[in-house]
Amino acid sequence: MRLERRPRTSRAALAVAPVGAVLFTMAVSALLVLWAGAPVGRTYALLLSGGFGSVFAWSETLTRAIPLILTGLSATVAFKARLFNIGAEGQLYAGALAAIAVGGMHGGTGFEWPVWLLFPLMMLAAALAGALLLLGPALMKNKLGVDEVVTTLLFNFIVLLGVGALLDGAMKDPTAMGWPQSVALQSELELSKLIPQTRVHTGLLWAVSLAVIVWAVFRHTVLGFDIRALGANPRAAAFAGVPVTRTVVLTALLSGALAGLAGAIEVAGRTSYVTLDMSPGYGYSGIVIAMLAGLHPLGVLAAAIFVAGVLVGADTMSRAVGVPTYIADVIVATSLIAVLVATLLTQYRVRWK
Amino acid sequence: MSNAPQTVLRLAGITKRFGPLVANDAITLELAAGEVLALLGENGAGKSTLMSILFGHYVADEGAIEVFGRPLSPGDPRAALAAGIGMVHQHFTLADNLSVLDNVLLGTEPFWRPSSRRSAARTRLLEVSQRFGLPVMPDAAVGSLSVGERQRVEILKALYRGARILILDEPTAVLTPQESEALFATLGQMVAQGLSIIFISHKLPEVLRVSQRVAVLRGGKLVAQAATIGTTQAQLAQWMVGHAVEGTVRRPATRVGDAVCVLERVSTEGGGHDRLRDVSLRLRAGEITAIAGVSGNGQVALAELLCGTRRATGGTVELMGRPLPPQPARLVARGVARIPEDRHAVGVVGDLPVWENAVSERLRGPAFSRPLLFGILPGLRWVRQRAARRHAQRIEKAYDVRGGGLDAPARSLSGGNMQKLILGRALMAPDTEARAPRLIVAHQPTWGLDIGAVAYVQQQLVAARDAGAAVLVVSDDLDEVLALGDRVAVMHGGQLTEPRAAQAWTRESIGLAMAGTHPAGAGSA
């Protein structure tokens, strides 16, 4: 078996590829559902309706999608420049913690500044925390050739342990009856609800706006060209005059800031304090979402909603038919592989010898 | 040569399609024992595809291959080697840190044999080397050998494995004229012993010199086969291109002006052996200065220095009286036009569309972008897409870039069209800054192009010279250096000879200078 590059990629193939990938994913996951002894049709119906079947389902899915959009954008920006940032999880926690540090109550000793000043400062602090966390690995890669996959991944553990220490120490909420959780955010700083009586908050507007901004930067600015050129061919980019180090630094700051904002917006919109389980791997899911979206910032919106819907729907489905919620992880992971293979097949054909 | 030439290799009706493209169209070709067959053809004519099929890297859609009368199983690289076919690639496949003997043995011994039979192997290697007149030192590290010696090791590697049919892909591309002569002598010796050789080249004089028979491919078809005696260069070129070809006619520089760019005792670091040591050079307006040399002697360093992608560690470089800015974007703004050596890896960003590549060098300037948010963030400039696309279209038209249009990825362009795009990008200033380039740095500007594109690129460089630009051509191709250069200098070991008028050099004296021996009485310019 060998792969041969197709002379050109047809539009029809590009349209069929994602559909085929979804069908393949459904087929593979169906085997697991059968193995678990549940009816396949009903399981999928429940999964779908649990994620997208009602206003409530949509509200839960969108709530879950907010951090996923932001971490997906974080991965998109970095991966576009071939900066493989695996550290969005840590950057998210750093952002969340920075938000609490600026906007927390701290037993009445928090900053008592007006909201119009404190809110932007809180967001800025979160973005900066995430950005600075990625700056080190990016510079080490650029100047010393240190592999950023390793450094950013390891930073996640350092940050999580650090957060754990702070939640049991300096930032511990004394009223939480021994639970390791941070002090709460000042309630004026919390994001308002987008739809009354649901959990969807205005963080969704932030996420969507940022997706559009990232898209515009990619598509319409010199910085966007720099990032795309650097990712596609660093030598040619340098020859054409792309300032390599500056672009790497800006990419890292942008990617880290987006992940940091994901943390702040989770705190301000949903949890109002930091715990060690506030993110069930949003940082890592962001990578999956970015790849599913083909590194397109607007595609991230759709991919994040898809992944969020599957995760939310799996909870409902699991309660009804008893298939473990892990099926959601299988579906998301399989769909990633299927999409990657389908994309490959739009560019190459398989020849059997 | 044997009196009753026996056919050792027979390709029968080989056809290979890639989608709509027919890379090889029913090619039937025979090779006799003791024969040198030259395989000629422009890039994309189907030479590489044919050789890849022979070597089992591709499977032909139709046709069969026979080696020494036995069918060769398709798609199996080992089968070709076992049948006695050896190939010497243009880019060597040697491990620098291993000795000659180790390189020859590499891959020939079973993995699980406890001890390698080195002494037997050494005897055999020396025997082979003596038989074919290819002297080597078995224990020398390959990294310490010259290019010509490395090629010798490659040939020995094939012979050691029992090759009776040897395919040489552009073997003289990296050699000095003297080394080429030595290679030709070796080929003669091999053929005399009954070996058969397929000699792939696009240099017509040497094809006429070494081969007994020529086969010409064009557009995937075998268009001509002839005994070499009785053909001429003009005839071969016409077969290759499909119509009569006019070479670039030398026109001497008429109006040589002041120095545009002055290098004063410049040294650089980095890139292994390829660096400059104490190089001085004046590039004058209205004149082409051509640099010859065996690749890897500092040419890359010189070209990169003047392209803004490498720094000088000593000495000074001045551009029109001011220090040369080390950033590519500022160089371009100062009127430097740059044509890099490797158009695929450095010249264009293949995944990005043609129009973005067409303006990539000047994207930062006011012609194609304007600051956003009062320029608070460097690089945050809004691209003026309409202006950029209009300029790309002008380049496409003026330089006849053919391909899938402005939005096709640059990767999809053929080599010639890609080079035209790069040429247009470098030479054509946008409307707002109507200024011709002051200095043109062209590194291997015609490498790998077909004859038509070669002539086009060379004409453009000559035209730019006549318009008053100082042109630097750095090339491994001696013919190109002599065809283009008004003045010629030779690089060796990071140092540059005094430039002399092209007429003052002979091929012999250049060859000696390329090998590091300065011609006696160098003051004859």
Summarize the structure.
The complex is a heterodimer of chains A (353) and B (525). By secondary structure, chain A is mostly helical.
Characterise the protein shown here.
The complex is a heterodimer of chains A (353) and B (525). Chain A is mostly helical and 353 residues long. Chain A has a single domain, classed as ABC transporter involved in vitamin B12 uptake, BtuC (Orthogonal Bundle). Chain A is 71% helix and 2% strand. Chain A is built from 13 helices and 2 strands; from the N terminus they run E-H-H-H-H-H-H-H-H-H-H-H-H-H-E. Chain A has a two-stranded antiparallel sheet with strand order 1-2. The radius of gyration of chain A is 21 Å and the shape is globular. The model of chain A has no long low-confidence stretch (mean pLDDT 90). With 525 residues, chain B is an alpha/beta fold. Chain B has 2 domains: 7-241, P-loop containing nucleotide triphosphate hydrolases (Rossmann fold, 3-Layer(aba) Sandwich), CATH 3.40.50.300; 259-524, 3-Layer(aba) Sandwich (Rossmann fold), CATH 3.40.50.300. In chain B, 31% of the residues lie in helices and 24% in strands. Chain B is built from 17 helices and 23 strands. Chain B has helices at residues 47-54, 77-82, 100-105, 118-131, 147-160, 177-192, 204-210, 233-241, 299-307, 328-333, 343-347, 354-359, 385-398, 415-427, 451-466, 478-484, 507-514; strands at residues 7-18, 21-32, 36-40, 62-67, 70-71, 85-88, 165-169, 196-200, 213-218, 221-227, 259-268, 279-284, 287-292, 312-319, 322-323, 336-339, 369-371, 381-383, 439-443, 470-474, 487-492, 495-496, 500-501. In chain B, helix 13 (385-398) packs across helix 14. The longest helix of chain B is centred in the middle third of the chain and has 16 residues, at 177-192.
